[in-house]
Structures
1.
Amino acid sequence: MSEESRTARFTVLPETTRSRPVVHELEIRRSRFIGCLARVDTELQAREFIAGLRRQHHEARHVCSAFILGADRDVMRSSDDGEPAGTAGIPMLEALSLRDTGGARDLSDVCVVVVRYFGGIKLGAGGLVRAYSDAVSAVLDTTRMLTRQRMVLTGIEAPHAEAGRWENELRAAGFAVQGTDYGASSATVTVALPDDGRAGDAFAARLAAITAGTGTFHTLGTEWVDLS
């Protein structure tokens, strides 16, 4: 994922859904609508997830899908898979993109598939739109979500004798300490800070207090981190 994204945080599904997708089934006028939800990083992964469900449910009438990718949600795709145009894929995509994730609508890196086993009763265009939207909303309702935050990795140069204490005190202050590497002459304590333009000043002030002004730090890079 590009580090040049406009946003520094968005909402994702847990990593576990990559190998164990969330599944929830609705029955609507004798048709079975099976919602399947997984975390994905790329369009290839999304299409592989869809293809796998198509093979698993080869007797189903329709395997409709939608997915959103990227921190900026710049990739959005959907498929009606034989349902009347606009009655399945687009409503499913809207259910994903408009999902309230706690005051925001920023769910991404997600793929949802709704498998339909036709029950013999036609639902009409409006009925199909509601059914596919409800199937996505229902499976989302059963899913825990996480915040994915872009973090700045900061390295603090520390004397060997002080590294353990500095690490412990930074942890106690609520900073995300990633670990300590011990070199020949000094140690480097790595701390991850939210890349939001606000965390640096508070970190610098706390580090100065802990180290009596002797601690120095430098930026090591950025990475995306799932926050619990």
2.
Amino acid sequence: MHVSQPSSMRTFTLGDFDFALPPELIAQHPAGERSASRLLDARGDSLADRVFRELPGLLEAGDLLVFNDTQVVKARLFGEKPTGGKLELLIERVLEDARVVAQMKVSKKPPVGTALAMAGGFTATLQGRWPDADGPMFLFSLSGDPYELMERHGHVPLPPYITHADTADDARRYQTVFARVPGAVAAPTAALHFDQALLDVLDARGVRRASVTLHVGAGTFQPVKTDIIADHAMHSEWYDVPPETQQAIAQARERGGRVVAVGTTTVRTLESWAATGHATGDTRIFITPGFRFQMADLLITNFHLPKSTLLMLVSAFAGYDHIMQLYRHAIDARYRFFSYGDAMLLARRP
């Protein structure tokens, strides 16, 4: 499924979404406690600096929080070719019959049919490119259950801007407390700020909860290479909106509650469903300014990379000028950026 964004009065270019970020503001480790991270309350024109555990006071009984319950798998695997050359696989998708789709980092691509010796004693046999000869993905057949092999021998696929090797702490903290469906190679990072104590407070306040699934792919970190952003081709990700979540959203609307999307992945899932009528499938939806949102009223999200599709999405949701203003404030106020960084709360602009 591919959904194009509606046209906007303004033609945005890649440079419109660039900004200078001091490198020291790129968070390399999470806050000591999940809900102790900072929260920029940017629902209106004025900005308020808060702590994430204050979120329940910003929501109302009857509001519905929608989370992405995808689970990050240890998708980074290391091995070598028969010639001894080192390689790295990043598994993007698990198929039937122990087959996987993966990115391959190697000095010279081995021939189709080559059995690669992977760390841990299993093999990955190259079957060819996926899905076409010009794509960056490859199809492999593993010599065991992919999920078991990743759990035993894989590494947490930390984003490229996090410079340390993955640790046991990353295995715990680069995962939400409600992760349920394995398949993501990147965390739905806005949800990393929720701990059980905060969820209990939200429950007591009467804020409802529901879940969707979108398996975040490594394509979320791929740079936009076209100057006219409408020319950019989005990567594909699998999503699902279960019937109980569809019902919870309808009930929230009936009682006058707001739908609060936790993270851009949740927004992409809900808007893919709304745009196509398909509750499950693959999406390449690209949301940029001018897009007409149908589902979320509020958005909780982290601070995103310059020139990224995620920055374009939040600009579409809250207004381009407003986002540029609050990013300047966040830099001046020394907020922490990206996956392990702080969060903001946005309201949808008409």
3.
Amino acid sequence: MKPNPGGNEQLTALAGILLVLFLAVEGATLLNVEGLLTVHVFVGMFLLPIVALKLGSTGWRMASYYLGREEYVRRGPPAFPLRVVIAPLVVASTIVLFGTGVYLLAVHETQGTAVLLHKASFIVWFAATSIHVLARIAPMLRGLRARYPGLALRLGLVAVVLVAGAAVAVGTLPAADHLQDQLTGQVDLDAR
């Protein structure tokens, strides 16, 4: 199979645009997270496979570049600050943010140290990811418009990831609902 850095760039762009869209929905839930916790968790769980796809496609590009694969080396690395400062912050904070979110759902916690870590990682993640998105928006749009061999395969992979996201989100919906009920009880919203 011939290396296809353009195809990888396009797959990364497809995952990126999905993340931008669904993260906007996730961000909107922060305006009233106590009342929208079920939606917040549902969207967060839906995002897991998309995040994995994005981390995988960018990880592939990075590994291919540093392993000296000619086609990737010819394209060059991302700008130095993005590669050395922003990318590690985005990856680490993404792992902590989503990892703590999954943990909180699994142990049914709505307060405590893990919640604080989730919130703190969001602040780091939001700052680093905002810089990343602003720096990569033009290449992402070019990648979406370009025509590279294997588009049907990439679109199929994206479809599988979306179905997987929906399955994870629906499968964890009862736990998300339980968290919402637990939080609502804590802040006494159900009291009459």
